[in-house]
Write a structure and sequence with these properties.
Length: about 475
């Protein structure tokens, strides 16, 4: 169980996130449970803005269609997908307190129990899926019935796309390539969750499944637009290199154009929402860490001050693994008849899948950490979250300069004007102006608008910019234009 003491160890970012209403440990009044967090009002807004940008990037930018599949699925799905057999972690158990721990780089069989110092012994592989029952049963049931009602919470959103492939390809008039996206919750019953948002038991994924004719994997139609992009690449074997995408693909380091295109696009998206390029690297999976379905896989890692390099996105070439196993188990035909330029005859092929898979909660953490600055302003210190305007939870805060009804009334009027123009604004009248600035800086609000007595006469307000702290006078009617222009 996560305790308050454990949370205090999480450091500045999570502390600020909790204090300001971004993120709270779930079930707090019942003592909490490790691996679960609730998003507070500002966290929910920030997360939604990341997801909106993501949908804009892949949905509009790439022309991918979004679907929404169920989060619970019957056993058959995961039997076919391989998750029942392979979605497991090696664990050790403490002989004295019986706690289980995941075996990873930080904790191995030679160490003592971090809880009580007891001896750790191997506990074998433990499956990470949450099991549930579909439907109710009363009293005895046959083995067959029980088997039918066994279900699991999805460990990734991808399977919901694969099992709908026949309908999706028909929807797309039997044409490849076809990109399908999904944003939603997934679940992994982690053996030892920790590190706030880094290893959760319930989390949000945003995944794209790009179905491509295997004969076309080296002919991405937009490869030209990204081929010169230079990336910091860490190969599965060998030393780190800086290479352009074109070099990485032609030398065989990245398996094909489709995979390479999507690796680059991930970097582009992360930078777009405000994660600095110099804190990102692209790391190829070693053969021994590749998931059971992957042919080549690249993690996009964020350099965290607190956790070191951490995976925030994975881009995998899943080959025809998923469609083939579902075809074999379900007997559904997962092939499509297509023709390739230059080939006269149409051929039946099982498409390959390129999958960029985003951990939204980890990206949320990375964005908080990389946006947080501690600055000295004169004699005072300020903490400021330098979010991009599109991402900031609140776009503008409106203050009455003094606690007078006439100023408060005007300030509330300005809040409503902005809301009517779809600018998410909030009213803040508590504490001194200095305190209000500090609070808005800490939650990353790009603009603070102050109403004073002059406003009542000339209809203008003072806008203070978060990053420069510069103040300008702007007429109420021009506030939206001013913000939009910036
Ligand atoms: Zn122990």
């Amino acid at each position: 169980m996560a305790s308050a003491k454990e949370d205090r160890k999480e450091g500045e970012v999570v502390e600020l996130a909790r204090r300001r209403g971004f993120l709270w440990p779930a079930f707090e009044i019942y003592g909490g449970a490790a691996g679960f967090y609730d998003y507070g009002p500002l966290g929910a807004l920030l997360k939604r803005h990341i997801e909106t940008e993501w949908r804009r990037f892949y949905g509009i930018g790439e022309g991918f269609y979004e679907i929404e599949a169920t989060t619970i699925a019957p056993k058959d799905v995961f039997e076919a997908s391989g998750h029942l057999k392979s979605f497991a972690d090696l664990a050790v158990v403490c002989k004295s307190c019986k706690s289980f721990f995941r075996v990873d780089d930080e904790l191995n069989i030679n160490k003592k129990c971090p809880g009580c110092g007891g001896e750790l012994v191997e506990a074998g592989e433990l499956n990470l899926m949450f099991q549930t029952r579909i439907g109710v049963s009363k009293g005895e049931s046959t083995e067959r019935d029980q088997n039918k009602s066994e279900g699991y919470l999805r460990p990734e959103t991808a399977q919901g796309i694969f099992i709908n492939f026949q309908r999706l390809i028909r929807f797309n008039r039997d044409k490849l390539p076809l990109g399908i996206i999904q944003v939603g919750k997934a679940y992994r019953n982690e053996i030892s969750p920790r590190k706030s948002l880094i290893r959760l038991r319930e989390f949000t994924m945003a995944e794209a499944e790009v179905f491509v004719d295997p004969r076309e994997k080296n002919r991405h139609p937009k490869f030209e637009t990204v081929k010169d992009r230079v990336m910091k690449l860490v190969p599965g074997e060998g030393a780190e290199v800086e290479k352009s995408l074109e070099e990485a693909v032609s030398s065989g380091l990245i398996a094909n154009e489709y995979l390479g295109y999507h690796v680059v696009k991930v970097g582009e998206f992360l930078e777009r929402i405000g994660i600095p390029k110099d804190r990102l690297q692209f790391r190829q999976h070693r053969k021994d860490e590749m998931a059971h379905y992957a042919r080549d896989c690249w993690d996009i890692e964020f350099l965290s001050d607190r956790y070191g390099w951490m995976e925030i996105v994975g881009v995998a070439d899943r080959g025809d693994y998923d469609l083939s196993v579902h075809a074999a188990f379900s007997k559904a035909d997962m092939s499509v008849r297509t023709e390739v330029e230059g080939d006269a005859a149409a051929e039946k092929v099982v498409p390959h899948v390129i999958e960029p898979s985003f951990g939204i909660d980890r990206i949320f953490y990375a964005l908080l950490e990389s946006s947080l600055y501690n600055e000295q302003v004169g004699k005072e210190k300020r903490k400021v979250l330098r979010f991009k305007s599109e991402i900031a939870p609140i776009k503008a805060a409106v203050f009455p300069l003094l606690n007078r009804d006439v100023l408060k009334g005007k300030a509330k009027e300005v809040v409503q004007i902005l809301r009517d123009e779809s600018v998410f604004a909030e009213y803040d009248g508590s504490g001194s102006i200095g305190r209000r600035y500090r609070r808005q800086d800490e939650i990353g609000t790009p603009y603070c608008i102050t109403i004073d007595y002059e406003t009542l006469e000339d209809g203008a307000v003072t806008i203070r910019e978060r990053d420069t702290m510069k103040q300008v006078r702007v007429p109420v009617a021009d506030i939206k234009g001013f913000i939009a222009e910036k």
